[in-house]
Amino acid sequence: ETLEIEGESGMQSMAPLSNLKSLRRLDVRRCSIRCHGLQDLACLQSLTVKECGNFFLRPIEAAHTIITDVSHISMTELTNLKSLRRLDVRRCSFTCHGLQDLSCLQYLTVYNCGNFFPWHTEAAHTIKLFPASLETLEIEGESGMQSMAPLSNLKSLRRLDVRRCSIRCHGLQDLACLQSLTVKECGNFFLQPIEAAHTIINPLPSSLEELEIDGESTMESMALLSNLTCLTDLVLVNSENLTVDGFNPPITVNLNSLKMYNRGNCLSRSISADLFSELVVARTNLLSPADNCQLRELTVDCISAVLVAPICSLLAATLHTLEFWYDHRAESFTEEEERALQLLTSLRFINFMDCPNLLCLPQGLHSLPSLKTLFVQDCPKIQSLHKGDFPTSLECLLVQGCSPGLQEQAKQLKGTKPDFNVILELE
């Protein structure tokens, strides 16, 4: 059922495999083999070809094909793959001509192919690059496609992931069924064409439920997200120029998970405090009592932005995971912050990660009745850790990248009770 061949020069074609009527998965790498005879493997479901040079793919019935480090092939040679549902193309020099003929294709990954989509923006409006059946599209390291216009015919597209591409968001608002969007390190993704800059206020489709944006300096205002009232998961990372201008509170009504932090060169600023201040005002003056906060998971880079009474009161009923990452400003906890923390009675998991100036943990951790897991990672100035500071509900403690003294104290807590697990390093 499964055959893997690597570094083999003896077998020149697939003919010797013709009797393998049950073969479902074939993986060939760094071989001189060619595809002649492959079409006879009628049950083949998964095919991987890597660094095989002259491997010319012929008609087969594979449902999942991976093509890596191949130059002597064109997309037109795949057009007879009538049942192909998933295609991964990685580090290949050919283009997407013929891709639109794969009428059953649902999942497409294009990784580091350079000019897989070799069309200028002007021509993209009249060319259909993709089959209308596509549901998931992942593109990384692609410079050819400049806008989202070539996706306009993808009425079934539900998930889009673009990373390290020169692509911009223009045309994305037309994807009415899109539910999940990830954008990482695309630089100018939110830069609009001059003719559209004043007419397209909301560049993203209102159907989005999951949105992750990482490293986009052209995202300057929360107004860009103002129509996304269906969001359940929102991740905003290293949006160094982002402000709360135009923030629309209803986009938070359905949120289950919010991650908003800066790291690396963007550590100097955080909009968490501004955003939560706006949210408190909105909850008081704008949103109806029926719009209860549903947030269950929260990750931010500013401890003081969250540990205030109005915010913790808002989150008390539902929040079970709270993570403070990359807060290089916090040193200790004020009395107000300690009191606010006590309001989070549903909290089950709390994590302090890369808070290099934090001198201590909150004294009130022992009063959190639902807390089961505590992580302390890369907080070198925290020196003290005592089991008496923890609630009886605590089941797991992880200490990693901290001072030797803290590591030793954590080690001594091992075995103090049967259901208490201490982890000193992540496996």
UniProtKB/TrEMBL annotation:
Gene3D superfamilies: Ribonuclease Inhibitor (3.80.10.10). SUPFAM superfamilies: RNI-like. InterPro entries: Leu-rich_rpt_Cys-con_subtyp (IPR006553), LRR_dom_sf (IPR032675). PANTHER family: OS11G0245800 PROTEIN, OS11G0677101 PROTEIN. This is Uncharacterized protein.
